[in-house]
Amino acid sequence: MSQIRNFITFILSRPGAAFGLALLLLQVVAIIFAPLLATHAPTEADPLASLQPPSGAHWLGTDVSGMDIYSRIIYATRVNLLISIVAVAVAFVIGVPVGLVVGYYRGWASTFVMRVFDFIQSFPVFVLGMALVSVMGQEIWNVAIVLAVLFVPIFARLIRAEALSLRDRPFIAAARCSGATDSQIMFRHILPNALTPAIVQISISIGMAILLTAGLSFIGAGVRMPLPEWGLMVSVGSQQMILGVWWVALFPGLAIVFSVLSFALMADALRDYVDPRRERA
C-alpha cells in the first residue's frame, strides 16, 4: 500500500502525469457507469434523426444511421479498452516467460524462436492484422488475439535482453554455486530484476493496441457494425466529412487521441518512477 501511495504522490507532483491519470480515471468511470452516463442505447438507430448536429437531444450529434454519437463513444470505451487490455495481458503472460527462457538458454531452439519473432515483426502490422482477422473472423476476441500475437515479440525481446545481461552476473553465479536449479535462477533471481522494462511497456502497448484496434476497424478488418468502436465510428463519419458533417468523425477521433495520450503519459510517469537514478536526481 505504501508503494501505491508513493506512486500516486509522485504522479500528482507532475502536471503531465496527473493529467494522464485524470484521463485514465475518466475512462474507468465510462467503463463502469456506461449505462448511467449514456443518454441513448448505443445501437439504437433512428433514420429520422440521421446526421443531426450536436444539440440538447443529442449532445454530440448523430451518425448516418441516427445513432447517438455520445452514447456510442461512452460504450466504445468498454470495447476498445477491453480488447487492448486483454491483448496486452495475454502478450505479457506469454512473452515474458518465453523471453526469459530464450535469454537464459543459448542454442538452436532460442535462435529459432527469435527468428519466428523476426518473421512476425517483418510483416506490416495492418497487413498481418487483416490477414489474421480475415481467417479468424471479425469478433472482439479474435481482434484481441491478433493484437496479442503482434505484441508477444515485444515483451519477449525486452525480457530476453535483460536476461542476457543478467545471466552472467556474480549474484547468478553465486546462486548456481549454492545449488539453485535453472528454474529457480530464472524465476527467483533473473525475472524480478528483468521485469521493469516490461512493466513500463504495458502502458505503452495498451496505447498502441487502442490505435491498432481503431485502425483495423477503420479499414473494415476489426469490429463490425453496429457494435460501438472508436475506429469504426471514425470510418463511418469520414464518408460525410466532405459534406461538412464534421461531428461524426471528430468526436470519436478525439476519444482515441485522449485515450492513447493517457496511457502515454502514464508510461512516462512509470518509467521515471522506476528509474534508479530518480532519488539522486
Automatic annotation (TrEMBL):
Topology versus the membrane: Multi-pass membrane protein
Source taxon at top rank: Bacteria
Organism: Paracoccus broussonetiae
TM regions (residue ranges): 81-105, 112-134, 140-159, 198-223, 243-270
Residue ranges annotated for the ABC transmembrane type-1 domain, each copy included: 77-267
Localization per record: Cell membrane
Keywords carried by this UniProt record: Cell membrane, Membrane, Peptide transport, Protein transport, Transmembrane, Transmembrane helix, Transport
InterPro entries associated with the record: BP-dependent_transpt_permease, MetI-like, MetI-like_sf, OppC_N
Predominant localisation class: membrane
Protein name according to UniProt: ABC transporter permease
Recorded family membership: Belongs to the binding-protein-dependent transport system permease family.
